[in-house]
Design goal:
By secondary structure, the protein is α/β, with parallel strands linked by helices. It is built from 8 helices and 17 strands.
């Protein structure tokens, strides 16, 4: 079996190397499997399942076709999946999945690197992650919430060890473009602060230009003017699963322009900006060299961290459990 794995590895590597000069982003394999490098982010209530394909195509511009069963036969039932195989063989790229396509984004080695040592990440019996340095936990335990968490008992949340919360302050409708305040935002901010949980906020943006990004900032600034904000104010732009959205036709450059406009406006108001995204957005939808100076909040649901660039916060699950909150909640760790 080991020889078979090495054989398929060599095959994938050789074929991918031949097509690597096509461009920074490559569609290497289309396959109907269940690998997920990152789940949709918490603002979306539902996601739609991609339709599956019966064949694996090596390169969009190549007619070579291998049956799905033939490829999967090279792996043990509990063995390494396609995504992990590609990542292991192409460390100079960020490999991620978009629909049924595997894409490669060249790692920019001039940017600040992720300095979180894998050996220092620890998961406890409750599924909670922490980061240690010299044997001491230096990460901060956090959550992010919106109206969908309902009524929250912040005293119990604090008692469960939560040190900070990133609270949705408002959002822009992905169809209407209307800005709406999260109905639980101010209540959550005030009660969290009273309980001793430090607060940051995020804005779910669907801005289609820089003017709208600045409008979003001014809207949220008015809402938090009497609140104690000690953690970042976060720009959160996402695609909408299963529906069309007003941001769908934005280019990578335009998305980056909008994120920068938001962050710079936050800085003018005296707050610390941050950008939230999953691997697909950071690797494929933003120009990373242009947003390097802003803190990053990375959404990646796994026990290990796969990302080459410097981050401040990691959202590692959307199914955490915290006293004082009914149902699931996103869990995060923050490292200075």
């Amino acid at each position: 079996m080991k020889n078979k794995i090495l054989t398929i590895t060599a095959m994938v590597v050789m074929i991918a190397m031949m097509i690597c000069n096509v461009g920074m982003f490559l569609t290497v394999i289309r396959i109907a499997d269940k690998d997920m490098d990152s789940k949709p982010v918490a603002n979306q209530e539902e996601s739609t399942e991609e339709s599956t394909e019966e064949k694996v195509t090596i390169s969009e511009n190549d007619n070579t076709v291998i049956s799905r069963e033939e490829v999967l036969s090279y792996f043990d039932e509990d063995g390494e999946g396609t995504l992990g195989l590609l990542r292991d063989n192409f460390p100079e790229y960020i490999v991620y999945k978009e629909g049924n396509a595997y894409k490669f984004a060249k790692v920019n080695t001039s940017l600040a690197k992720n300095d979180w040592e894998p050996a220092n990440l620890k998961k406890d019996k409750n599924g909670e992650m922490s980061y240690k340095k010299n044997g001491k936990v230096i990460s901060k335990k956090g959550i992010d919430v919106s109206k969908y968490q309902g009524d929250i008992d912040w005293e119990k949340v604090k008692g469960d060890g939560v040190e900070y919360a990133i609270i949705r302050i408002a959002y822009r409708g992905y169809g209407s473009g209307e800005i709406v305040t999260d109905e639980k935002a101010i209540e959550n901010i005030k009660n969290a602060t009273k309980a001793g949980v430090k607060v940051g906020v995020y804005f779910f943006s669907q801005a289609i230009n820089e003017k709208e990004a600045r409008e979003e900032v001014q809207y949220l600034i008015e809402l938090i003017k009497d609140c104690k904000i000690e953690y970042p104010i976060v720009f959160d732009m996402e695609e909408i699963s299963g529906d069309t959205a007003r941001i769908d036709k934005l280019t990578k450059e335009e998305k980056t322009d909008i994120a920068i406009a938001f962050c710079e406006e936050i800085k003018k108001e005296g707050y610390n900006p941050m950008i939230y995204a999953n691997i697909k957005w950071f690797a494929g939808y933003y120009e990373m060299e242009r947003i390097e100076k802003y803190d990053k909040w990375f959404a990646y649901y796994d026990d290990s961290l796969y990302f080459p660039y410097k981050i401040k916060m990691w959202q590692y699950t959307d199914s955490g459990k915290v006293d004082g909150i009914a149902g699931n909640v996103d869990l995060n760790i923050y490292v200075e």
